[in-house]
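Can anyone check this?
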Amino acid sequence: MSLSERSGDPDYRGRRNWEKRDVFQRSRGDCVMNNERLEFLREDYVQGFPAAIGFKVDQVAYGIFETRLKIRPDHIQQDGFVHAGVIATMADHTAGYAAYTTVSEAFRILTIEFKINFFKPAVGRHIICRSKVVNNGKTIKVSESELFSLTEDQEKLVAKAMVTLIAVASSNLK
């Protein structure tokens, strides 16, 4: 088949584009999401300090991570609201894992900078954090986290964070 014939064949063109995309993904370190990767991310998120705080994973997809925290007495500050440090930690950690869904196992995600705005005191039974990647660069990524307090019948936006992250090869962290 000549080049001109192949370029007119939609199956050939699609296969060629798929192969290019696959090579492009591997060269950028992008992650192809599968059940094994999703389960790894769910388990990896909840360890160490985040596990001690009580974070749980609700949803994982490419570029998206959603978590939940059941509010306990030790999360509360002197005025009866969830401590800002708990909310900031949840915003940062969840945003990092939203970015982590976009890279392969060969990379880790580290926070470079984050900014958080607190809109109202967090009260209720749970805090929900919904994070998504808003700029998926090869090395530098930006995620946005929205945090909601959840009462029996209502979600209220209590904070929003913008988190800048860097994808670093795991081999460079040793």
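Reply from J.R.: I decoded it. DSSP finds five helices and six strands in the chain.
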